[in-house]
Amino acid sequence: MARVRVGDMRRRQLISATIDSIHDVGFSATTLQSISRHAGVSTGLVAHYFKDKDGLLEATLRSLASDLSAAIVEKLRQAVTPRDRLAAVVAGLLAPEQFEPRIARVWLAFWGQVTHAPKLKRVQNIYEKRLLANLRHAFKQVLPAEQAEEQAIALAALIDGLWLRAALSREPSNADQAQTLCLAFIDNVMERQRTSCSAA
Amino acid sequence: MARVRVGDMRRRQLISATIDSIHDVGFSATTLQSISRHAGVSTGLVAHYFKDKDGLLEATLRSLASDLSAAIVEKLRQAVTPRDRLAAVVAGLLAPEQFEPRIARVWLAFWGQVTHAPKLKRVQNIYEKRLLANLRHAFKQVLPAEQAEEQAIALAALIDGLWLRAALSREPSNADQAQTLCLAFIDNVMERQRTSCSAA
Amino acid sequence: MARVRVGDMRRRQLISATIDSIHDVGFSATTLQSISRHAGVSTGLVAHYFKDKDGLLEATLRSLASDLSAAIVEKLRQAVTPRDRLAAVVAGLLAPEQFEPRIARVWLAFWGQVTHAPKLKRVQNIYEKRLLANLRHAFKQVLPAEQAEEQAIALAALIDGLWLRAALSREPSNADQAQTLCLAFIDNVMERQRTSCSAA
Amino acid sequence: MARVRVGDMRRRQLISATIDSIHDVGFSATTLQSISRHAGVSTGLVAHYFKDKDGLLEATLRSLASDLSAAIVEKLRQAVTPRDRLAAVVAGLLAPEQFEPRIARVWLAFWGQVTHAPKLKRVQNIYEKRLLANLRHAFKQVLPAEQAEEQAIALAALIDGLWLRAALSREPSNADQAQTLCLAFIDNVMERQRTSCSAA
DNA sequence: CATGAATGAGTTTTCATTCAT
DNA sequence: TATGAATGAAAACTCATTCAT
Fold it and tell me: Structural domain boundaries of chain D?
């Protein structure tokens, strides 16, 4: 069991080094050497823990996705109303730590690869679906099914778009402003619903 | 002059082959060989027209950006009201041809590289600034300055986000639905403005 | 420590293979492949020990220079009189091993490059200065400063010239004859000095 | 006939450009492109006048050698005594124009190649033999055959050595000083001869 | 005559992977 | 476990040569 933990630590260390390397030099310039330099270990070690480079990359994306999921789940736990749930998802996705260049850039780099790497694509799909299901479910509690689907897509797009611009821009990004814009969007959608309901 | 055109044709041919290759095998698997195979020429020819691979990649991004700019400019020409202008930008950015995988995937691939390649970054910055200026200007005609800035960012994010999800998804994307969502956003912003104005 | 030695052995092996290759096919026809073929290793190994081809070439010149320096220093150790010292330098520079084509041709090949490769130039400069200093110092013990400088240059030129003609000629060269000519030059200079002194 | 002259001018122009290129970037970095850039013509032109690159290089060395020969022959014409003849050869070989880096470096660069390029070797051999024959012949008029041969070799070596050091050093070289050293050598040899004769 | 576009072989360099220690 | 030496294939890049115009 202690053994297992040592192995897990090494794995985490290598994943972290991979993120650092992608952040520093980009995806295509990231080599096993640049990773192992970041990790302070030898190149041969990767094979020991991840079979090959692709295995390490997949594990890295999986790690990013699961960290993000965990953060959202944590915030959802305290949510009561549908608006709470939507706000929780927004808060998770646009949390300051997701805006840090170290993370945002790496997500972006992976997205550029995802379309051509089936294994990465699969990881991304899971995250994607889960996110949309969360938003759709919350909207359905206050909107008719069709509109709920539509607004879920719109909100997801808004979130991704805000995050994308943050990742692309060089200025330290403003997570607060992004969240405010999303909450405004949510409130706006809901208010229109209330208005049209009461009008009918 | 005929000479110039022959050279320009070759340049375009190589750029097109680069786009094809990135679309087919992704950014990091795109090699000079994969490009020249697509173009039906020898690998050495790239040096003749673009100095090296980076030069070709930069020219490719520049070509994508200028095509997009031209499309927007064309649509803006017929716009009269601020709403027309916003709709024109949306129509340009979310035009069906921008949703074609051949284009969308390549944009995405470049975005993954942009943060680490200063020369690419510069190209992207220009496009980015111009876009935002367009939106800001249109919004300023109907909103107070501060809100205009904010909504310009939100709309840009919504556009990018919609486009991004389309690029990431494998299903043939719905350009119409994306545009509809954006127009709804625009109308919504404007209507709220009208309401609050008349209320005041 | 054993590790270090293994690495040093490989380095020496690659340097020796470089010398062999330059001797066999010349400087410009020497490729990493011709070198690694001589060494019986793969081409990739050069990067492991010398970063790149230039690094290997620089190390090779440095190795030639340091071997030569060591030989001279060894001979100087037993020298007592100024004439001994001059004879020792001559004996070192015009030693039979310096006349072997394997060494002589490679020196010549490097000299052809030295003027255009700052890193090589630096190596050559060090060797050059040290040599001249040795000769000057010995001459100063028997000649006035100005003449000593002059004769040091002349002797150095004579040595280099003799060696150069040997390197250029295809016949197995006569190290003995070359040394004899130099010693005659030295004795001649000294005798004139004695004569003019006693005359005065 | 006018045709021939135009061709000759082009040939000279290309040879001159080759010398310039070797001087500027060295032998191995000299390409047909660097040459044609220097000459202000297209790369394809070389084939027209010299068959291929090797042909141009050979013609260049031949041109250097014939210029040098012509200079020596010119100076020999006015020589009367043996000493005059030796001085003329020295004056030709160590003339200021041969000390100019543009020429000296290029000679040196060729020497580095000569041992591996039979065609170049042949050119160099001719020059070499002619030079030695000149010196030997002059010395034979004042020395016994064996000594004449020996001193001819020594003087040739001294000349080459002086020239070599000039080519390797970066400082603008002193042709005068070099000639003075050679003349001192000559006079010295001759004086010893006279002395020993009169003594006998 | 002269150009420069185009080729394709050859060279350097990079790098994931393997393996003996 | 961990290292880093070693490999070999694949990449980018260079360049002499050819050829249509």
Answer: 1-50, 70-199
**pLDDT computed for residue B168 by the predictor:** 86
Model confidence at C86: pLDDT above 90: yes
Give the distance between the most distant pair of CA atoms in chain B.
69
> For residue C194, is pLDDT > 50?
yes
Best residue of A99, A115, A160 to probe chain B, by most B CBs closer than 10 Å:
A115
Ranges of chain D with pLDDT below 70: 1-5, 172, 196-200
Residue nearest to nucleotide F6 (CA to C1'): C45
Class of D70-199 per CATH? mainly alpha
- C91: its two tokens: 């004996």
- Domain D1-50: state its class: mainly alpha
Query: In whole angstroms, how far apart are CA C110 and each of B79, D69, D134?
Result: 71, 27, 30
**Which pair of structure tokens corresponds to residue A41?**
């270990």
CA distances from D128 to C121, C165, D121, D154 (A): 27, 9, 10, 14
Please tell me the class of the C1-51 domain. mainly alpha
Q: Domain B78-199 falls in which CATH fold?
A: Tetracycline Repressor; domain 2 (1.10.357)
Query: Looking at the complex, does the CB of residue B71 fall below 8 Å from at least one CB of chain A?
Result: no
Q: Do B160 and A159 touch (CB under 8 A)?
A: no
Nearest chain D Cα distance for residue C1, angstroms: 39
Residue A45 CA and nucleotide F1 C1' are separated, in Å, by 9
Q: Given this model, what pLDDT does residue A198 score? A: 62
| pLDDT of B1 | 44
Interatomic distance B10 CA / E11 C1' (Å): 27
The answer to whether the beta carbon of residue B53 comes closer than 7 angstroms to any atom of strand F is yes
Q: Cβ separation of A165 and B185 shorter than 8 Å?
A: no
Q: What percent of chain A has pLDDT over 90?
A: 74
Tokens 């006015």, residue?
A: D78
Which of D100, D103, D116, D131 to mutate: most C Cβ within 10 Å? Answer: D116
Q: Which segments within chain A are labelled E, that is strand?
A: none
Is residue A6 pLDDT above 80, yes or no?
no
Give the span between the Cα atoms of D151 and D137, in whole angstroms: 11
Segment C125-133 shows an average pLDDT of 90
Q: Which nucleotides of E are covered by protein (CB under 7 A)?
A: 1-20
Residue D156: exposed, middle, or buried by beta-carbon count in 10 A (0-12, 13-18, 19+)?
A: buried
For residue range A146-187, list pLDDT tens digits in order: 999 999 999 999 999 999 988 888 777 788 999 999 999 999
The CA distance from D194 to D200, in Å, is 10
Res B199: pLDDT: 53
Fold of C60-199: Tetracycline Repressor; domain 2 (1.10.357)
CB B90 within 8 A of CB B179: yes
CB B36 within 8 A of CB B1: no
Q: What is the pLDDT of residues C169-181, one digit of tens each?
A: 877 778 889 999 9
For residue A25, the distance in angstroms to the closest alpha carbon of chain B comes to 6
Nearest to C158 among D154, D167, D184 (CB): D154
pLDDT in tens, D157-167: 999 999 998 88
pTM of the complete model beyond 0.90: yes
Q: Tell me whether residues D168 and C114 touch, CB distance under 8 A.
A: yes
> CA at C33, C1' at F1: how many angstroms apart?
36
